Amino acid sequence: MGNQAYAKPRGTVDLLGDEAKRYLQLTQVFSVLAEEYGARLILTPTFEETPLFIRGVGDSSDIVRKQTFDLVNKGSSKDYTLRPEFTAGVVRSFIENKIYASPDTPQRFYYYGSVFRYERPGAGRLREFRQFGVEFFDKRLDFNSQAEAIILAYRGARRVLNRELRVTLNYLGGNLARASYRKALTDYFKNFIENMCEDCKERFRLNPLRILDCKVEKDQQVVKGAPRIEDYLSHEDKEEFASILKVLKDLKIPFVISGRMVRGLDYYTGTVFEIEDASHPELGALGGGGKYSSLVSALGGPEIEGIGFSYGLDRLLEASKESFKAEEKNPSFFVLPMGKEKGCQEKASLVAELLREKGYAAVMPSLDKSVGGAFKMADRIKAKKVLLVNSDLTLEEKDMEKREQRKVTLEDLLK
Ligand code: HAM
């Protein structure tokens, strides 16, 4: 071993043992759920060309302005960035592979994996974290499809948390409504902006909608008096939102509406939503998403609408420590050579391999372990049976629960 000690980078985690397993099982539970809604798995690259995110996520978002991990350009003509979210990459793939041409609509996808944001690490905030998400596409996403995206998000979190969740919704309006609302906000905030925080000054310039999200107390006073989005929505906007809410009400999915929730990505139009764990508000949102009507066309595809959401799996893992346990699968056999002779050890390793071929999990201790030490290990790893390989190459099986030992033959075991 060298003398250099390495530590993981700030804002990253090692998922070990049960935590790693819970991560995998979480993705499995959500995959099954997403498939119940007709979604198919899509796996896209971990890095993409930088302009995709600038155009996709939006250059007024904090994510693109401050939080991307940009890769050092080694003389290539393109710049690359680690994905700070999945949606832009999924839409790129949807266009590039002409998936939109399929007649089987709506088209639905789910995905999971790491995403990267250069944020200040803190509670529930990492620099590499994991997401699971879905994206639904259709020429015109009907209210049902939109409601289903929210219901799916809610049901998934309920499946692993099994307790009260807070679903917050807002409706940002189509492009027209957004333009006039943006103008109204600019007109309103221009009288106050001088005395607001530096972030707000920047948001005022780039996207005044994001000022509504400001957490600074004195600014919140100003935000309280700001024009409200509902006064700028068209008749169609209002009808669409009302239809979605009706589906949620009929299914008794609890929600609140907040005109202040604007989300941190630039592509949203229409319904946006976030889900929080009512008993762990300090973790922030467990997941969020919304509708985007113009992202596909903005990235060079046809006029197709999308709606989607992503969970933060690290936050869900933290919140579900009690309610979602890793499924334990103990090894069936602990194969223990009792003699130090090479022949005995070879026989043990052969037997273990034959058992594995039959689909049993078979574990062997390091060959230098004492018999006593090996039995302790078999107990710790909760092996169901210890298979003793004697020096004369006969086999005995010890049932660790019943504490019974009997002679067996290899033929019996493999039967
Ligand atoms: P987002 O709200 O930026 O949305 O991220 C989704 C979730 O990822 C958050 O609700 C949170 O649980 C988790 N998350 C975000 N930042 C961090 C962090 N630094 N550390 C740990 N977890 C974090 C999106 O990413 C959109 N792409 C969602 C979407 C899909 N909208 C439409 N389709």
Secondary-structure blueprint:
Blueprint: H1 17-36, E1 40-41, E2 47-49, H2 50-56, H3 62-66, E3 80-82, H4 87-96, E4 107-116, E5 128-138, H5 143-161, E6 165-171, H6 175-189, H7 198-206, H8 217-224, H9 235-250, E7 256-257, E8 271-277, E9 287-292, H10 295-298, E10 305-312, H11 313-319, E11 333-337, H12 342-357, E12 362-363, H13 371-380, E13 385-389, E14 395-399, E15 404-408, H14 410-414
Parallel strand pairs: 1-4, 6-7, 11-12, 11-13
Antiparallel strand pairs: 2-3, 4-5, 5-10, 6-8, 8-9, 9-10, 13-14, 14-15
Helix pairs in contact: 1-5, 5-9
The protein binds histidyl-adenosine monophosphate.
Residues 85-87, 117, 119, 124-126, 129, 131, 133, 135, 264-265, 285-290, 308-310, 312, 314-315 line the site of histidyl-adenosine monophosphate.
Average pLDDT taken over every residue: 94
Helix count from the secondary structure assignment? 14
**How does the overall form come out from the CA principal axes?**
elongated
Estimated helix fraction: 25-40%
Question: Looking across the biggest beta sheet, what order are the strands in?
Answer: 1-4-5-10-9-8-6-7
E-strand count: 15
Beta content comes to 15-25%
Main sheet record: 8 strands, mixed
Rg, rounded, reads 28 Å
Distance between the termini: 45 Å
Q: Give helix and strand order, one letter per element, not per position.
A: HEEHHEHEEHEHHHHEEEHEHEHEHEEEH
Which ranges are low-confidence, i.e. pLDDT below 50, for 5 or more consecutive residues?
none
Could you say which small molecules are bound to this protein? histidyl-adenosine monophosphate
* Protein structure class: alpha/beta
